[in-house]
């Protein structure tokens, strides 16, 4: 009987702690069209996604994802899954982004929602739980967004995380732990980490300046003061500029025409500048006054900053000037090992993409060179024909339409 109880307890413990994959999408076929919903929110001209591996890839079938296909468009596409809570367990949000169009301005991020999302009306103001992923616009904006909704307000991370801006596939991973810590990984390598409360302004500050405290009127913050015993020398004051003693009035100077002659001014070698007494240590110096702080009565700690009670949907809600981004490998789980193994495939993917792109670039280079070379002999032949055509002595040259003088 005791043995059975132990077995039941172990099974229950295992069931409570085992990892789960809550959502995964690799776009292996066209079934995504049945589960992902386009928004029809009024007033927006939305672009369409197409399933493709793009122009260069490692494995054409395995690397297929959803690609933005129209320039200067908003994109709004989402899907729902069985809702779950990340209470007392990690939350991993991961996906891949490939800006093969060499994006100049556009979003590459996803949003995570609760079940209240109306998919056919999703738009930029739709409430979300998490916004995560790269955003690029010109040379000044190349960052990874990590935004959490807390108490109805969206909070941006207080750190700058740079995203990848090349044309190859990259995995972006956000890990939120139940101890209120987080990590951001790109291609399975940590690029940022920390504590939620410290890196987002979810809560009021723990300490505030004491509103009752004021700096004493006699508080002296001057580290040095002018020496009261220092006196300016009597011969100190000299003009900064003096007439040039070597200058002479020109022989042709006419005072009636040119006015009274004055020698030009030069720097005075005896000029010492503006006098100021030397500085000495201030005997009354008390240091820089620091405003005393007190506990903030509005601060209340929250051990559940990490918690999202109902995770139910994921969507792409973004704008792109130049289309061509491919989104793939969506994964929401509490299994860190599974997520790491999935992201590790990016190395092989990138190697294949780079190899194929280099081959394509080389073919294009050769093609351009061949076309240029093919066009050049024709021009040379025409020039040679004009130059080498013999003339018959005594025969009049044909009128070429030009009058020769």
UniProtKB/TrEMBL annotation:
UniProt keyword Disulfide bond, yes or no:
yes
Q: What disulfide bonds does the UniProt entry report for this chain?
A: 105-137
A Pfam cross-reference name: Calreticulin
- Annotated localization: Endoplasmic reticulum lumen
- Where is an alpha-D-glucoside bound in this sequence? 109, 111, 128, 135, 317
Q: Name one GO biological process term.
A: protein folding
- Signal peptide interval: 1-19
According to the record, the residues making up region (Disordered) are 205-257, 347-405
Its biological purpose is as follows: Molecular calcium-binding chaperone promoting folding, oligomeric assembly and quality control in the ER via the calreticulin/calnexin cycle. This lectin may interact transiently with almost all of the monoglucosylated glycoproteins that are synthesized in the ER.
| Family recorded in the similarity comment | Belongs to the calreticulin family.
Q: What is this protein called?
A: Calreticulin
| Organism whose genome encodes this protein | Lutzomyia longipalpis (Sand fly)
Q: List the taxonomic lineage.
A: Eukaryota, Metazoa, Ecdysozoa, Arthropoda, Hexapoda
